[in-house]
Amino acid sequence: MRLPAARGPITATLFDRLSGPPADAAPPPMAPGGPALADDDLQLALFACYELHYRGFDDVDDRWEWQPSLLATRALLEHRLEDALARMVSRPAAVPPGKVRGALAGLAAEEEADPSLSAYLLREADLEQFREFVVHRSIYHLKEADPHTWAIPRLHGGPKAALVEIQADEYGGGRPERMHAELFRATMTGLGLDDSYGAYLGRVPAITLAISNTMSLFGLHRRLRGAAAGHLAALELTSSLPNRRYATALRRLGGDPAATRFYEEHVQADAVHEQIAAHDLCAGLAAQDPSLSGDILYGAACALALERRWAEHVMARWRRGTTSLEDDMVAASPA
Predict the structure, then answer these.
(1) Buried b (16+ CB within 10 A) or exposed e, 217-239
(2) Using CA atoms, how far apart are residues 79 and 96, in angstroms rounded to an integer?
(3) Of the candidates 7, 83, 79, which has an alpha carbon nearest to the alpha carbon of residue 48?
(4) Which CATH superfamily is domain 97-319 in?
(5) Comparing C-alpha atoms, which of 202, 197, 199, 227 is closest to residue 78?
(6) Rg (Cα) of the chain, in Å, rounded?
(7) Which end of the chain has less Cβ packing within 10 Å, N or C?
(8) Per residue in 116-137, pLDDT tens?
(9) Strand blocks (E) in 205-320
(10) How far is CA 80 from CA 15, 183, 214, 233, 315, in A?
(11) Could you tell me the residue ranges of all domains in the chain?
């Protein structure tokens, strides 16, 4: 993956610096305020900063990862993201450790009561819309599980073992071809999309990037380990039914077994993972440190709210008859 095109003054300055050798520099210009979750420039800049901790960019020196001036820039961007999350999500009240599991289930149930994108994909979406959906999801699914894995060394005892158990399944139980990221690549290939890592980074909107950025934010900061656990639990608790719909929708649109396997795998795996995540990981973590129960629920609430806002963006564009991406078309690999 190479650096994408800049989307404003922050990324223009940042990408110009990243194209050269690591050096001290003042942070890029950042306009105060504004809706950070809808700011393409800010979210792309933060995504690029985080990506240096993952697979990086072919045209960026790996030594930038821990360059102090870049970390200072990242901290400013993170502050804007954290502030936006706090404005969007009312922090749930802390609960006793024994009630964490029920509180998580309550948050998930509230989300499932809303009209869903998965229901639209199941019944109404055409093939191009499903391909757009997959393009959005590729930003996370091609490195699925990696952001939450950062939390493993920040935990101990039962919660750590629970997270490792979930992540081991995400990584295919030691079989590369069963890694969820690899299964998703097969879905992309089956839809005639470019399955290379980060191929569509320059095409997705700010809210799609914000979903991944929030995972990285929670995973990379020890102070947010509770939020990381709650975030993962929320994804697992709300996964099985939507993925069943995605699999059925893709079959309706002509998808073959290789293309639908990613979604079918999540129907089964996440039915188990949701129990481990809610009970062993989150309730266990709250039992170890009751002060984290509020953070756990906040992380879950952030995950659900971001997914809802992203779905609203996609559906609003589709109702207007336009693409939900930042281009007029979805680029495809030769079929």
Answers:
(1) bbbbbeebbbbbbbbbbbbbbbb
(2) 29
(3) 7
(4) Heme oxygenase-like (1.20.910.10)
(5) 227
(6) 19
(7) C
(8) 899 999 999 999 999 999 999 9
(9) none
(10) 19, 34, 11, 25, 26
(11) 9-88, 97-319
Structure tokens at 200: 């569509």
Distance between CA 51 and CA 316 in Å, rounded? Answer: 29
Quick one: pLDDT band at residue 33, thresholds 50, 70, 90? Answer: low
Buried b (16+ CB within 10 A) or exposed e, 93-130: ebbebeebbebbeebbeebeeeebbbebbbeebeeebb
Contact 270, 240 (CB under 8 A): yes
Q: What is the 3-state secondary structure (H, E, C) of 101-134?
A: HHHHHHHHHHHHCCCCHHHHHHHCCCHHHHHHHH
Read off the DSSP letter of residue 223: G
